[in-house]
Automatic annotation (TrEMBL):
<keyword id="KW-0119">Carbohydrate metabolism</keyword>
<keyword id="KW-0624">Polysaccharide degradation</keyword>
<feature type="compositionally biased region" description="Low complexity">
    <location>
        <begin position="76"/>
        <end position="102"/>
    </location>
</feature>
<keyword id="KW-0378">Hydrolase</keyword>
<dbReference type="GO" id="GO:0000272">
    <property type="term" value="P:polysaccharide catabolic process"/>
</dbReference>
<feature type="region of interest" description="Disordered">
    <location>
        <begin position="51"/>
        <end position="102"/>
    </location>
</feature>
<dbReference type="GO" id="GO:0016798">
    <property type="term" value="F:hydrolase activity, acting on glycosyl bonds"/>
</dbReference>
<dbReference type="InterPro" id="IPR036116">
    <property type="entry name" value="FN3_sf"/>
</dbReference>
<dbReference type="InterPro" id="IPR003961">
    <property type="entry name" value="FN3_dom"/>
</dbReference>
<keyword id="KW-0326">Glycosidase</keyword>
<dbReference type="InterPro" id="IPR013783">
    <property type="entry name" value="Ig-like_fold"/>
</dbReference>
<feature type="domain" description="Fibronectin type-III">
    <location>
        <begin position="1"/>
        <end position="72"/>
    </location>
</feature>
<protein>
    <recommendedName>
        <fullName>Fibronectin type-III domain-containing protein</fullName>
    </recommendedName>
</protein>
<dbReference type="Pfam" id="PF00041">
    <property type="entry name" value="fn3"/>
</dbReference>
Length: 102
């Protein structure tokens, strides 16, 4: 599952982003993309992203992006959109895109 989002802005500067799957942090990245692997087929997931500034303060989590992986069995497959979410700024997001402006 490849996720991407627009860069956040902050008066101190943005250091990195926490990527959360179903409310739990699965990665911390410095860029604006992340590929989640090892997902189960036929499973619903919800992703949010939270920016962290250079003072180590976190911003609010983005709007959730909900996806359902296709297929059955143990091997991961491409995800399909199960619903869309709205980012905190009110812009509609695609299944693998979320907003982190704060």
């Amino acid at each position: 599952m490849k996720l991407s989002w627009s860069a956040a802005t902050d008066d101190k500067g943005v250091k990195n982003y926490d990527v959360l799957r179903d409310g739990a942090t699965v990665a911390t990245v410095t860029g604006t993309t992340y590929t989640d692997t090892g997902l189960s087929k036929g499973t619903d997931y919800s992703y949010t992203v939270r920016a962290r500034d250079t003072g180590d303060q976190t911003g609010p989590a983005s709007g959730a992006v909900k996806v359902r992986t296709t297929g059955t069995g143990e091997e991961p497959s491409p995800a399909t959109r199960s619903s869309s979410a709205t980012s905190p700024s009110g812009a509609s997001t695609a299944a693998t895109t979320t907003s982190t402006t704060w």
